[in-house]
């Protein structure tokens, strides 16, 4: 399958109703401000305190979190107007609370609905607006390290519940992958492991296998080592380069939501393929971009392009010679990279309803 270029545009029905553009842009501006306000509540601990203590007045919330009452009052009122908090009473003693859905979305790190980290991501990209403007004008990029800990932790925290709660069961339902992972002494690589939550989740689910997480971002690898230690995971190790990892051969290698970020994806896939045992497999989990560019797009495709213009493409282009994939890696692009790396077969795996990701097997 060939890569689909932006010039191949799927038609949009002429009679499709469209919201006036001015109204749409106004809504986008309001949403951006609300996103930044979520970041305030997340970083100041206000959501967590409301989840732990129940309804609070702004004065009580400020006192419990050692913040300022006037700001807490404005934020609580704004959050209730936005529909994020519930205002229980009227008057100066009005109390505000999170309902059950709000607890899951804003505070529950184990919930697949946990989205407070998304606001961290957006805010971190906003802080880097001057650097992004320079990159867009002059070339180069904005590296993962420049984007900082809120992007690192934001991505890790959003993916963590999917890896811990959903991933092991989905892989167990694919018989040949379950068989490989269940082999005593099987060696499994997690390339681009980030904070290590995918590695740790699989190591827990398959204690007889050995797992090696690799990521070029040193702070992420350090976080992964701490997370594995805290989890008591003894069959997983983490390295900052493929050269420092065990030589293999590997029975299975995973690349979870990272291939599109890599400046040289074919080189990485080639190295991974060379490390495989006979019959070894590679599984790529990446964003489920549409096969054909369609404009306007649905909310998922809009989100993917949002990630790409603010983070993934600038990070990739911060490296010399980058191919500049971007977040929107279509099936055809992945298939091309896989063929160039020497893989003969590229197939979708029967894993559905896993966020907005797609699982592809290479062999």
UniProtKB/TrEMBL annotation:
InterPro entries xrefs: SAM-binding_MTase, SAM-dependent_MTases_sf
Protein origin, superkingdom: Bacteria
Pfam families attached to this UniProt entry: Methyltransf_23 (PF13489)
Protein name as catalogued: Uncharacterized protein
């Amino acid at each position: 399958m060939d890569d689909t270029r932006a010039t191949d545009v799927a038609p949009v029905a002429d009679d499709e109703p469209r919201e006036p553009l001015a109204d749409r842009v106004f809504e986008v501006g309001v949403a951006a401000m609300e996103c930044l306000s979520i970041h305030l509540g997340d970083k100041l601990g206000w959501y967590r305190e409301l989840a732990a203590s129940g309804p609070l007045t702004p004065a009580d919330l400020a006192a419990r979190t050692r913040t300022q009452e006037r700001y807490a009052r404005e934020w609580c009122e704004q959050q209730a107007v936005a529909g994020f908090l519930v205002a229980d009473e009227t008057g100066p003693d009005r109390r505000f609370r999170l309902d059950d859905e709000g607890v899951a979305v804003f505070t529950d790190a184990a919930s697949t609905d946990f989205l407070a980290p998304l606001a961290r991501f957006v805010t971190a990209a906003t802080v880097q607006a001057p650097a992004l403007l320079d990159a867009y004008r002059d070339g180069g990029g904005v590296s993962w390290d420049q984007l900082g800990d809120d992007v690192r932790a934001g991505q890790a925290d959003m993916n963590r519940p999917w890896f811990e709660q959903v991933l092991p069961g989905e892989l167990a339902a694919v018989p040949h992958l379950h068989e490989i992972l269940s082999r005593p002494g099987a060696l499994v690589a997690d390339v681009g492991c980030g904070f290590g939550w995918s590695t740790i989740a699989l190591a827990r689910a398959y204690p007889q296998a050995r797992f090696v997480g690799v990521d070029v971002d040193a702070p992420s690898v350090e976080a992964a080592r701490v997370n594995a230690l805290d989890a008591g995971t003894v069959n997983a190790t983490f390295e900052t380069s493929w050269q420092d990892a065990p030589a293999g051969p590997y029975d299975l290698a995973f690349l979870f939501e990272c291939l599109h970020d890599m400046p040289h994806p074919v080189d990485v896939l080639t190295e991974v393929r060379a490390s495989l045992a006979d019959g070894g497999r590679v599984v790529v989990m990446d964003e489920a971009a549409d096969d054909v560019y369609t404009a306007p797009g649905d909310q998922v495709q809009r989100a993917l392009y949002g990630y790409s213009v603010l983070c993934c493409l600038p990070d990739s282009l911060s490296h010399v010679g980058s191919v500049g994939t971007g977040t929107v890696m279509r099936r055809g692009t992945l298939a091309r990279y896989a063929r160039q790396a020497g893989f003969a077969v590229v197939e979708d795996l029967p894993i559905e309803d896993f966020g907005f990701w797609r699982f592809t097997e290479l062999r």
